[in-house]
Amino acid sequence: EKFGITQALEELGVKNINNGTSTGADWFSSGGEIESYSPVDGALIGKVKATTAEDYEKVVQTAEAAFKIWRTMPSPQRGEIVRKFNDELRRLKAPLGKLVSYEMGKSYQEGLGEVQEMIDICDFAVGLSRQLHGLTMHSERPGHRMYEQYHPLGVVGVISAFNFPVAVWSWNTALAWVCGDVCVWKGSEKTPLTSVACQNIAARVFAENGLPEGISCLITGDYTVGEMMTKDKRVPLVSATGSIRMGRKVAAAVGERLGKSLLELGGNNAIIVTPDADVKMTVIGAVFGAVGTAGQRCTSTRRLIIHESMYDKVKGAIVDAYKQLRIGNPLDENNHVGPLIDKDSVKNYQDALKKVVEEGGKIIVEGGVLEGEGYESGCYVKPAIAEAENHYEIVQHETFGPVLYMMKYSGGVENALELQNGVTQGLSSAIMTNNLREAEKFLSVEGSDCGIANVNIGTSGAEIGGAFGGEKDTGGGRESGSDAWKVYMRRQTNTINYTTELPLAQGIKFDL
Ligand code: UN1
């Protein structure tokens, strides 16, 4: 039995593997089949059916009916349900982490890490369920009280990507649930089985607690299924993670009907390495950032902006580190780098390497697709590094794979910041420095323009406690920690008059 996958699927209740039928949680889909192949070994793991327009209608009605029940449950009690869901995540961490690793291709450690993010956000949400605070204000009118409260929005649509097939869903749903919303989730069609596994866990917890499954709904399929939600007025908020191209479409469709969207789109994340950087830390941060998850995180390090005085030293240390990388089966914990998600992604990676050379870049760590034993899926590639200039078209573009661009800056940190901010995306950024002035400049109003700005840490691996997301083409949305919950609720300002007079605001006199 390969890597214990069959057992993991059984523990997760993902049924009927490879017999051509659905895999559980199947009330939501009756359309064409979606096959899920593992990039690890190219094997067919299972099939699910796609959601049709009729299925979608049923799903939204089920979700709307569930909302009527769920919204009246006190929020701390909803938190208690999230706690129970979290107990199940803790119990099933290993099989779910394994399925994530096998279906998506990230290392088992990172698969477990992703489930850990789910556990952490659920803990956060449980605490939050007692802290959905609004403010109270002093009314300008005598005998009046004014305060604000937050009410749930209704049906929240979640569109997530293959690269974090479970964590990003939970960032949205754990918060939305305690806020009193119900969720309809369209996971990536590249990772449908992890979606089914999560839906099964949620459905079981809701059923065991006498609650309708419609609090959590799953729809499956490609962008056309996502469009059913983005165009649907019954879905007041759509939270979407994915490419900038996808985000533009979502924002336009949701905006057209004046809905809300929360967008977490591409990044083009850089680490600035100053003359005061700790080289050892820089190497760890940069290499993990560039090759971790095979460069398929939104927060992956795409660019290194190195001061000329440090350039040769840092370049040498990083090129040496790349020589130590072991590429192969991500379920084997000795490997650092697993496969890309599919062959289209391999093609994008190859095109990027070709393009950077055409534009004048110089490859300093050769890439290439691996062949032979262990690499049968055709999705394993060598992490590559190119010396390039920031203005190259390919450098401006996010390639979802292990391609790192190195460039030099001279003079002060403001020159590095100009390069760093000189892209259309604005997700994550980092500076490696022991110089207080440089670090503070980087964090200042004149510094990084990204949603995430780290000092002496790489660009990837954010904790759930902070708000996650970024500016410019990254879409402006914030998910996960801090006060990101507010976007899942509608704010109401309430003013109560406890007198027998009716004074008007702004001192207006209106005598009858
Ligand atoms: C993503 O790639 O969409 O900060 C999410 C990180 C992870 C989440 C990445 N905690 O790298």
Automatic annotation (TrEMBL):
Domain spans labelled Aldehyde dehydrogenase: 30-493
UniProt keyword NAD, yes or no: yes
Active site residues according to the UniProt entry: 264
> Which leading EC class covers this enzyme?
oxidoreductase
Q: How does it assemble?
A: Homotetramer.
Quote the EC number: 1.2.1.3
**GO terms for molecular function, please?**
aldehyde dehydrogenase (NAD+) activity
Membrane-crossing ranges are none
Keyword Lipid metabolism set for record: no
Q: What is this protein called?
A: aldehyde dehydrogenase (NAD(+))
Give UniProt keywords alphabetically. Answer: NAD, Oxidoreductase
Gene that produces this protein? pcd
Q: Which family does it belong to?
A: Belongs to the aldehyde dehydrogenase family.
